[in-house]
Amino acid sequence: MRRKRRSLARAVGMIYQPKDSPKPLGIVWVDCPRSVVSAGLVRALEEKATVHQGPKPPGDAPSCVILCANGHESLSERVEFYRELSPDSPPVVVFAPQLDLPLARDALQAGASGFVHAEMTPDQLVRAVAVAATGELVAPRELLRYVLIKDRAGDLAALSVRQREILGYVVEGLSNAEIGRRLYLSESTIKQHLRAAYKLLGVSNRTEAANLFRRGD
Asked: Exposed/middle/buried for 35, CB within 10 Å: 0-12, 13-18, 19+?
């Protein structure tokens, strides 16, 4: 009877799997103190993974750990704690209630393999866990832009007082000649200060410099 059932499944293009066959994502360990959040994660993952809930590790090695973040404090210690609980050091994915780019950055810097949040769809969550389980990093696409802006904003500290003053006027929309009249400097001197500022900021024109200065000032 079982052989006939398998043959019928193949005939209609189905893949026969016994009920006890392992799920594609293996064991996913969800440790979240908020029961409502934990239940939602289980519902999103249960079709593709065997979900283990709670602070204690599962009996078998998990393919991935989902850790609910409680802010930025002790994130590094918590990620390391969960990784050391299992001999196979599974990837840890940090979960947050919303898209929090500073937290996502801190999670990856702390050693997490990914960052997910409650604004994602169940399918997006499943794909993120699947990618993390393979050893790849999972991060919001907005994170790269955020990190680049923050890195560039750090270069603002290298600007001189005069360069910052001139860029402030550039942001206001003043021309080089108008800035020169405000500061009692020649237009060529304003251009020299701007060229030096562009080099420090890694930009090529006044529009890029103004946008960066506006975001970071």
From this structure: exposed
209 pLDDT exceeds 80? Answer: yes
Residue 83 to residues 20, 76, 104, Cα–Cα distance (Å): 28, 11, 18
The total of structural domains in the chain comes to 2
What is the pLDDT of the chain when averaged over all its residues? 82
Residue 57 and residue 61: Cα distance in Å, rounded? 8
Best CA proximity match to 167, nearest among 132, 193, 146, 185: 193
Same domain? For 107 and 210 the reply is no
CATH number for position 198? 1.10.10.10
Please identify, among 139, 171, 188, the residue that sits at the C-terminal boundary of a domain: 139
Contacts of 34 (CB under 8 A, 6+ apart): 68
Do residue 99 and residue 186 come from a single domain? no
Are 93 and 56 contacting, i.e. CB atoms less than 8 angstroms apart?
A: no
CB burial string 84-118: b at 16+ within 10 A, e below? ebeeeebbbbbbbeebbbebbbbbbebebbbbbbe
Domain shared by 163 and 127, yes or no: no
Taking the C-alpha atoms of residue 175 and residue 13, their distance in angstroms, rounded to an integer, is: 69
Model pLDDT, residue 21: 66
> Is there a single domain that holds both residue 95 and residue 198?
no
Half-sphere exposure of 101 (CA within 13 A, CB side): 11
